[in-house]
Design a protein that fits this description.
- By secondary structure, the protein is mainly alpha-helical.
- It contains 6 helices and 2 strands.
- Strand 1 and strand 2 form a beta hairpin.
- Helix 1 packs across helix 3 and helix 2 packs across helix 3.
- The longest helix is centred in the C-terminal third of the chain and has 32 residues.
- It is flat, with a radius of gyration of 35 Å.
Length: about 190
């Protein structure tokens, strides 16, 4: 059995093992691992194809087959009459009388009304403008007015701004050093 490290080395081109290649041809599980490792590499290099072919149907079918069956409690609905259908099979109807269709329609109406109300409230909240800070809109009667502003920064906010600027400079410097290192490695 091939080790995952050997498969990874084969994908990276570090080794060329003919025995491992033969195992990949014979064992579909190893071939799947080999394919996944190539997909991981493509994702890290941002070389993913526009459409991935992934067959999940076998795994889903196996998971459904392994899942235990749910045993439901017996039904408590009493059936009182059977109706003959056109193919002479008997269909049992529950004993609710004429109220059952009305309850079903009322339930459907309640669900539709709830969804409509949620959509209306959502649209109103989304389209509502921010009224928490009203704007004073005044026009001077005569003459001209010059805007007045106060540009005040507290000591703490200026210190935080300086720290942010130093952090950005440090990151730019690290990126520059990393770029230089990459250029040296490529030569």
């Amino acid at each position: 059995m091939a080790d995952k490290e050997q498969i990874s080395a084969l994908v990276d081109g570090e080794i060329q093992d003919t025995v491992l290649l033969e195992q990949l041809e014979q064992e579909p599980e190893l071939a799947d691992t080999f394919g996944r490792y190539h997909l991981y590499g493509d994702a890290m290099r941002h070389d993913l194809p526009s459409h991935l072919q992934m067959d999940l149907s076998n795994k889903i079918a196996a998971a459904i087959a392994d899942e235990p069956a749910i045993i439901a409690a017996p039904s408590t609905i009493e059936y009182h009459d059977t109706v003959q259908s056109t193919e002479s099979t008997k269909v049992a109807r529950p004993r609710f009388g004429k109220a059952a269709p009305m309850l079903r329609y009322a339930g459907q109406f309640a669900i539709a009304a709830s969804i409509s109300a949620a959509v209306i409230v959502g649209v109103q909240q989304y389209s509502q403008t921010d009224l928490s800070s009203p704007v004073l809109n005044t026009v001077p009667m005569s003459g001209s007015a010059a805007p007045v502003s106060l540009n005040y920064q507290s000591g703490e906010s200026s210190r935080l701004a300086e720290q942010d600027q130093l952090e950005q400079q440090r990151r730019v410097h690290e990126l520059f050093l990393d770029h230089e290192l990459q250029q040296r490695l490529r030569q």
